[in-house]
Design brief:
By secondary structure, the protein is mostly helical. The protein is 58% helix and 2% strand. The protein is globular and about 50 Å long.
């Protein structure tokens, strides 16, 4: 299973803080920094999902996923723009929505969203590394994200709200009325949600691929070690020393064909 080192976790957190410093300004930046400082101890080690077969179900997985989605969103936005799409939102709005689309996975103000799975059966048979905290009041991840931002007085623009709200696409039942409408007046008036959904999908699948590769490498190494352990040991024959040219001539002279 993929794991991050302590240094990687620290570096990811520093990168996230730098992203805030470089992107935002004024009162909103100060409120964001206050929120992240409040959650630092929990957020920096939070996983992005609960099952090994999903994405980044590991210590520090949440921050790494957020950074992935943000980077992918900026890349995809450039691709859309270069192909003629209308971009009526700023990079700041795109980054804000990407950074906070999964904020609800941090939990509430006091408790984590994910806690370690203490059932060995569930870990072994279902691949559940973490489970949902049963003590939390139920909210969707998106609703909890908006609740947390509101608690810290962090405002958002209309496009930031739409982008954050709809990043999960049609995987979230509540998004259907936004994405599927038979009234053209109700259709989305910005491409930010489409771009963010593609960015989230892209990052999630890449993280899954990384997990698969590392899992395959681990299994290959484990199988190889097991084979070596059970193979019968045989004496290794020492190779015959190669004759020098002078010795070979002497050998041929004494024992060669007459």
């Amino acid at each position: 299973m993929k794991q991050l080192t302590e240094q990687q976790i620290l570096d990811n957190w520093d990168e996230l803080m730098k992203l805030i410093e470089d992107t935002f300004e004024g009162d909103r930046k100060e409120k964001l920094l206050k929120m992240y400082k409040y959650f630092e101890d929990r957020m920096s080690v939070a996983p992005a999902s609960g099952k090994a077969a999903y994405h980044n179900a590991m210590v520090g997985g949440y921050v790494e996923h957020v950074l992935h989605v943000t980077e992918c969103a900026l890349q995809i936005k450039k691709l859309w723009e270069s192909n003629g799409a209308e971009i009526n939102f700023t990079d700041e709005e795109l980054i804000f929505a990407a950074m906070h689309h999964d904020l609800g996975k941090v939990g509430d103000l006091n408790q984590d969203y994910y806690i370690p799975q203490d059932s060995e059966w569930h870990r072994k048979n279902r691949g559940e590394i973490y489970k949902h905290n049963p003590n939390l009041q139920y909210m969707t991840v998106t609703d909890r994200a908006i609740f947390i931002l509101n608690h810290f007085g962090i405002t958002m623009s209309q496009w930031e709200y739409i982008g954050l709200r709809l990043t999960d696409g049609l995987y979230e039942d509540g998004n259907k009325s936004y994405y599927i409408s038979y009234n053209p007046d109700w259709s989305l008036k910005s491409n930010i949600a489409y771009i963010l959904h593609q960015a989230d999908m892209m990052a999630t699948h890449i993280e899954y691929d990384e997990w698969m590769r590392q899992d395959e490498e681990y299994n290959t190494k484990l199988t190889s070690n097991m084979k070596k352990a059970v193979e019968p040991k045989t004496e290794t024959k020492q190779p015959s020393p190669k004759l020098s040219e002078k010795s070979q001539d002497l050998f041929d002279e004494l024992f060669g064909d007459k």
